[in-house]
Amino acid sequence: MLILGVDTSCDDTAASLLSAEDGNIEIVSNVVSSQTAVHSKYGGIVPELASRKHLEMIWPVVEEAMSGIGLDKLDAFSVCHGPGLIGSLLVGCSFAKAVCYSTGTPLVSVNHLEGHVLSAFLENPIPEFPFLSLIVSGGHTCLYRVEGFMKYTELGRTRDDAAGEAYDKVSKLLGLGYPGGMQIERLAKEGNPKAIKFPRAYLPGTLDFSFSGLKTAVKLALGSQGLSPAGGMATRDIAASFQSSVIDVLVRKAEWAIKKTRIKRLALSGGVASNSALRERMKEMAEDKEVELYAPRPALCTDNAAMIAFAGYRHFLANDIAGLDLNPKAHLPL
Ligand code: KG4
Ligand code: ZN
Predict the structure, then answer these.
(1) Which atom of ligand 1 is nearest to the CA of 180?
(2) What is the pTM of this model?
(3) Which of 42, 146, 237, 317 is placed for a possible disulfide with 195 were both Cys, Cβ 3.0 to 4.6 Å?
């Protein structure tokens, strides 16, 4: 069967065509149109501009993803209906409903976080159940216990900023621009991660996260040292020290979750999970603790619609079909 996935939850217009047969899947196309150029001059996402850009891009992106196949050939249309920016979600949902109404294709709705969790199934080897899933993105930092498809239990979440949000805010403080993750990763490679001892919010006794104190600590360090933004040696050291604090926390919390649940399978996803230093440290921890680690390639960690198509496929198999009265939701727990 052929499933089209569409995600317009934030600032990327994404569409992906998935072919699935007896549980085996093939990603036929995975198209992502980034809006970075639109938002970078504002230092962050401007929601109104994001929805307008989605409106402009949804047709061309879907057309490219369909690779010459007619929309009437689809067996299911899977759309992300939340959480995210409401105006952006509305574009994807309205588009999906219009296509399903005119072609009679079954509509399936998917939570963006479920997409991230199930991105572990987009590449071989795939995890067996149960497994732990750590989502580290710009909007979310959370840990789930996954017992099966559609069986998710939240073990912890950020109490304030998401890890990617901290990267973006620190990048702005350092004058490196938006989005910040890749810029900080690049600069951190040249810096000393031990130069500044930034705090690590381990929050003992819980699997929750907190990154806003770290961002404030970076701000204070910048103030006291009177650094000029971008490029200097000290900026590199700040980037490296900041990143080392984020990674220490993520790795230790993952270790705690493994110990607490005794589940020795861990899947990573979200934009921050494309960070090579984080992947390397998680790999070392996994080897040390004899844990199976599932980290899809970076293009499947960051926002994409292949994960939405796959999650939609599982809903379709479970006969969980959405109505054409589907409405997007800015806040949507998994
Ligand atoms: O998953 P994603 O594409 O979108 C959300 O669902 O939020 O994640 C985007 C976030 C941004 O905050 C971005 O700065 C961060 O992921 N990011 C990174 C890297 N690439 C993207 N953070 C650290 N290192 C990276 N290489
Ligand atoms: Zn995401």
Answers:
(1) 14
(2) 0.95
(3) 237
